[in-house]
Amino acid sequence: MKIITTIKSVLFGAILFSTVAFAIELDIAKETGLVGEQQNGYLGAVVQSTEVMELINDINAKRKAKYQELATKNGITLEQVEILAAKKAYEKTEPGHYLQVNGQWLRK
């Protein structure tokens, strides 16, 4: 357990303080607490950095396109799909990952 925590800390530091720009993968970002699920169906930044924001913007653009496709296909609004997606994302969020609740980031 202590080794895993140490590895996560080193990885977290490397991601935050790297001078080399690189894409962060979603799983790693969630596992290290950089991003979390928001109540609007989209990712949010738990920790602010350029790399984190690039990841969030990319993922959220893809989510929004999919949500719009589902809304159109099912004859409902984008907002309705976002609400349903947020609920599903909260249910699927793994223990230890972050969720935004009433504007605060909390670990599940």
From TrEMBL:
Pfam families: DUF1318 (PF07027). This is DUF1318 domain-containing protein. InterPro entries: YdbL. Keywords: Signal. Residues 1-23 form the signal peptide. It comes from Glaciecola nitratireducens (strain JCM 12485 / KCTC 12276 / FR1064).
